Amino acid sequence: MEGEDFVPPPECPVFEPSWEEFQDPLGYIAKIRPIAEKSGICKIRPPADWQPPFAVEVDSFRFTPRIQRLNELEAETRVKLNYLDRIAKFWEIQGSSLKIPNIERRILDLFSLSKVVIEEGGFDIVSKERRWARVAQKLGYPTGKNIGSLLRSHYERIVYPFEVFHAGASLPQTKAKLYDGEEVDREYKPHSIPLRQSVQPSKMSSYGRRANRLQPDVSYVDSFVCRMCGRGDEDEKLLLCDGCDDNYHTFCLLPPLTEAPKGNWRCPKCVAEECKKPAEAFGFEQATREYTLQSFGEMADTYKADYFNMPVHMVPTELVEKEFWRLVSSIEEDVTVEYGADIHSKEFGSGFPMNNGKKNLSQEEADYARSGWNLNVMPVLEQSVLCHINADISGMKVPWLYVGMVFSAFCWHIEDHWSYSINYLHWGEPKTWYGVPSVAAERLEEVMKKLTPELFESQPDLLHQLVTIMNPNILMSHGVPVVRTNQCAGEFVITFPRAYHSGFNQGYNFAEAVNFCTADWLPAGRSCIEHYRRLRRYCVFSHEELTCKMAACPEKLDLNLAAATHREMFIIVQEERKLRKGLLERGITEAEREAFELLPDDERQCDNCKTTCFLSALACSNCPERLVCLYHTQDLCSCPTDKLYLRYRYTLDELFAMLHRLKVRAEVFDSWANRVKEALEQEEGNKIDLEVLKAEAAEKKFPDNELLQRLNTVLTDTQNCQQTSTDLLNKTQTRDWRRDSAPPEQLQALLEQGAGLPVDAPECELLKGLQEQGRWLGEVRQTLGPEGGEMTLAVLRNLMEVGCNVPQSVSVETAMAELQELLTIAERWEEKAQICLEQKHPLSTLEAIVNEAQLIPVKLPNILSLQGCLSRAKAWVTDLEEIQNGEHYPCLDDLEGLVAIGRDLPVRMEELRQLELQVASAHSWRDKASKTFLKKSSQHSLLQVREARGGKVNLSKPGVEKKAEKETEREDKENGGGRWGEDPMELDTALHSENCGKENVDSNHTTTGSTPQSVCVCGRAPRPPLLRCHLCKDWFHGGCVPFPSLLPSSSGLPTNPLCWWDWDSRFLCPRCQRSRRPRLETILALLVALQRLPVRLPEGEALQCLTERAITWQGRAKEALDTPEIQGALERLQELKQKQPHREGEEEDGKKGNCESLSLTTRTQLEELQLEGDLLEVSLDQTSTIHRVLQAALEPHRHTLRTLILVRDQETSSFSSIYCISLTPVVVKCTI
């Protein structure tokens, strides 16, 4: 069909069941079977509301697909490819590569050429009678272009040697032509799958093809002799075979060779041996990559979009279908796809919900898990035959999953045991199906064997391997009826027994399939076993075992299945009796019982036909490892007859007994008899049931029997009892239920008389009912009377429930009507109250409902609850008015408590809404203040940060300093006098750090106390680099807390690195700097927003105190900084900063220490201001100014600067390269 457009076959039947029809899956399939079976397949669209959820765990679902090469799937194309592989192999092992010629812009079909030449009589006749033009015409080439001579030339030099070689003849003496092809020809490469691999290169030396004179010395003269002519002359033209080391003259070969071939070369004998090797069976190979659903879908969608150059959802199904059949028929295009087929749902999970206890199902999922259309449920339905097989047969009873991509295909096949199959497409792009009805199954097999006999010679059971496809147009042209359909997501496709089907996927999709068998399948299943017996194919299960298992329990079968099983069992028993009779005629009389169902299948298979035995088998005592079915008793062994014995499961009598029980069950007699016995043996008889059973016996014409006679006797006695009870009831007079009922003593006496009857008559039941009426009416009178107890809804409902079970009368109906009226009124008010409790209503509405409900003489719980809610709502309003009318704004906690109480009340109050808005505004302000003050992941609360810190600030910790100094000295000694390498500048820095540490120790006033064992937030021992907090004087490690940056507060590098007073060396530990320290302007904005809130917040009051302290301090700081002394100092620092040299070499012998001198009073004032400013959680410009002045008045903090440089050097190498050059000299020179 290559080169021709694909013509779609007609559509298969499509059914759309109603909801009522959809409730019985197998019943609906049986209903449509007469129509659908004629097509082989059909499509079913469920009702629109039937949409089962997809239950596969998508994240954990992983699978390895199969690899499919499309042109190897099609039968005729595979034959051509096999032929090309063989001819390529033929030329390759002779040192030449096969190059396929191109004629009329398409490659030459060598297989078709060979076939047409053979049909025309062979090469000699075609050449002699000049039929090459006819050959060209049959191959589809145009006439008048001298194509015939081209075909002859190509055939003669490519195909003819191969055909003659396989025929075993000799080539005529013609002019030698070594086939090397033309430049325009296409070199053929065998397929890469294992069965199509080209011959492996020889393991011998690469010099093996050279003339003998180039070989090493050999001791045998025969090694230099041509095997064709027997001469050893012209040794330069001797070729050495790479396979057997024989020698041949190039001119002695057929055809002769003009020169030594390139590559490996083998002699004619080795070529014959290699080409006679049988081909391996064709099959799919597994991919090496494992996919998830997502990764496979991405691959599939990308592949389709790239192939058709358009979005996947825009590719028409007709275009995909035509392209698929073009690709599978092409020997030029080798398109490969992947198909996740036959994935076991038991291992990977079904797409349908399953009630297996592994997952808690919702109500919807549970409904779908029980649905008969769930593919996990359908095979085991009561009407299904497979439910009688105990084993979980994967693919038949347990569904298989299929993940497809575009062009992935399933080949022509029928189901195992010719069973039904059902396929459901969960989601994705459509799946295209082709079906052939069962009546044409043999015709399809004949056509495929006729068109591709080469495939069936190597694989007789090819159609059972699911690896071969054939174009439906070819089948239809040979008289095979084919139908098609596109299965969309959410649709079922049913295949019927022995209906061949195939198809392919339009794109990425997910499907699930399973087999099932109904009662009408049984004859087809038996025919399938006979078919398997002829093919010697293994069975999936024993058909006889399945039938006998159903026959053994006929009561579990419905009538239809029982009747079908009876017909099937009858044929099996008759055949078994005939076979066993044949054994007796041969003189085989020994037998033993065998429970075949307990044996593994491979231990009870016939050695000849591979059928799984169940009813019987023939065995030999001398050959215990073998057995055969009774159809192949002659093929067991050659031992004497007395050594043979029968192994049987049931005796013939037992089989006939099973057959009889089936017959009885099929005729429904057993069911009727069991119901009669049950009705007669029960303690309380039922006249209506007995009459129905009698009518059924008359309708079905059951024979007269003892059970029927007993039934008639009981019915006669019942009629007499009925008359007696009627007379007794007529004497009873009905009275007004409010006054009194019938005397209970009289009713008891009548009941005792009725108890003596053999069966309880209906009138006796009426007497019991009258007694129950009197008892119930007494309870009603007591409840509704003035002396009755508390009347509740439960009491009324209980009376109504009991009254419904009491036999009805006028009195009962009247009492029930009064109770119902009272109950309806009470329930109506109770419902109103419930609505008010669930939905908030105004206070006035609730008061009206409560007042009206108090008139009902029934205690109503919801009304009582509503009364309580009403009282609490009034009290809540009173409390709110008291709080709001107070002298001060209410606190947030009080308002939040009121909001919580008000929300729980089922009352709609406008005051509550306004209160909620106030509370929400307060929370919003608090959140904004928290974001302003608190650091990320801060351990302090907003209130803790804003409060003024009390207690004394730890100004010195000499023990820690000594510990740090000792640790520094110890590490210096361990490192050979220097921890920072051999750089003299770093060494000077280390020495200066040590001296500085000693100076700090001497400057402390308190020197007593034990040395601490740990410092810092980590609680470990002191180790350099250490830095002391500016406030608390605690020591901290360089890597545990963030240290200052050495850069000024403004961005960028310092203008002059030698102006240490501009360096930001002040360090505050996390315990001292607890907040972000916002600017004063930001805090003032928060205070303005706070003034608009009618709520008191502790955080707001703390913020006001903090603001007042900050403003007070700012005023004092401005006064101190505005003094002439400070102003002069600031101006001198600015001048010094501009005059200070920027490099070490430019520094003058000027200042080595402090740059400014302050009076003791001024310095003390500034230090106090600095300490107070550091304690404030507010950022103020005056703080940094005071710090600069104090820094300039002191000598550089060399130890602190050195530590900060080291920390920064550890954090970034770039900082070290930039600053260590400029900063380190400053520290070193300050120590001079």
Structure, described:
Residues 12-53 form the JmjN domain. This is [histone H3]-trimethyl-L-lysine(4) demethylase. With 1232 residues, this protein is of the alpha+beta class. Among the domains are: 14-65 and 287-340 and 363-518, Cupin (Jelly Rolls, Sandwich); 555-668, no CATH class; 826-933, no CATH class. The chain has a nine-stranded mixed β-sheet. β23 (616-620) and β24 (627-628) form a beta hairpin. The longest helix is centred in the C-terminal third of the chain and has 29 residues, at 810-838. It starts with 13 loop residues before the first strand and ends with a helix. The model is unreliable at 170-184, 192-221, 950-1011, 1049-1054, 1143-1152 and 1213-1232 (pLDDT under 50).
CATH topology of the domain at 14-65 and 287-340 and 363-518: Jelly Rolls
Oligomerization category of the chains in this entry: single chain
Shape: flat
Low-confidence stretches: 170-184, 192-221, 950-1011, 1049-1054, 1143-1152, 1213-1232
Secondary structure category: alpha+beta
**Largest pleated sheet:** 9 strands, mixed
Give the integer mean of the pLDDT values: 75
The residue fraction in helices comes out at 40-55%
Number of strands: 27
Strand content: 5-15%
Count of helical regions:
41
**Strands across the major sheet, in which order?**
1-2-19-16-21-14-13-4-11
Per CATH, the superfamily of the domain at 14-65 and 287-340 and 363-518 is Cupin
Spatial separation of the terminal alpha carbons:
103 Å
